[in-house]
Amino acid sequence: TVPGTIFEAIGGFETIDRLVTSFYKRVGNHPELTPIFPDDLTEVARKQSLFLTQFFGGPKLYTEERGHPMLRRRHLPFEITPSRRDAWLECMEAALEEANIDEPYRTAIFEKLTMTANHMMNTPEY
Ligand code: HEM
């Protein structure tokens, strides 16, 4: 792990794992999100761990396995409305707290994910 990255500062793989576990537990119980996610979240959680590791400066595990992230393109099959974006971010905000990720990293992570979540929207509200 490279020193000076958010990945390293928050505690590496173990912390990413705690965050992702807490996040998908919430996603799997959120009425806005369950319609577009599979019932079994194991595989999406695994890919998200690879992605967040890389996104926060850890090893490029996602790209090794899946190639260029192209996240907006990968999300096009799913209707991502403003309220689904809000729901996703709500789950993430709570997960950052539950995983005990401290400031200033909590806010830095949340801001970066907010920008990415905004970029994922592809459907207006019904
Ligand atoms: C995959 C929803 C934002 C990263 C998915 C899937 C859904 C989804 C439905 C596919 C599940 C499946 O495989 O069937 C959403 C919604 C978002 C959102 C509603 C709200 C804005 C984000 C953000 C990130 C992200 C902000 C990254 C920071 C990923 C990754 C995958 C994924 C890495 C797996 C892609 C792959 O197959 O390799 N998301 N997503 N998503 N999402 Fe999101």
How would you portray this structure in words?
The protein is an all-alpha fold. It has a single domain (6-120), classed as Globin-like (Orthogonal Bundle), CATH 1.10.490.10. It has helices at 6-10, 12-27, 42-55, 61-66, 71-75, 82-98, 105-120. α6 (82-98) runs antiparallel to α7. The longest helix has 17 residues, at 82-98. It is globular, with a radius of gyration of 14 Å. The chain starts with 5 loop residues before the first helix and ends in a 6-residue tail after the last helix. The relative contact order is 0.17. The model has no long low-confidence stretch (mean pLDDT 97). Protoporphyrin IX containing FE (HEM) binds next to α3, α5, α6 and α7. Protoporphyrin IX containing FE (HEM) is lined by residues 36-38, 44, 47-48, 51, 66, 71, 74-75, 78, 80, 84-85, 88, 113, 116-117, 120.
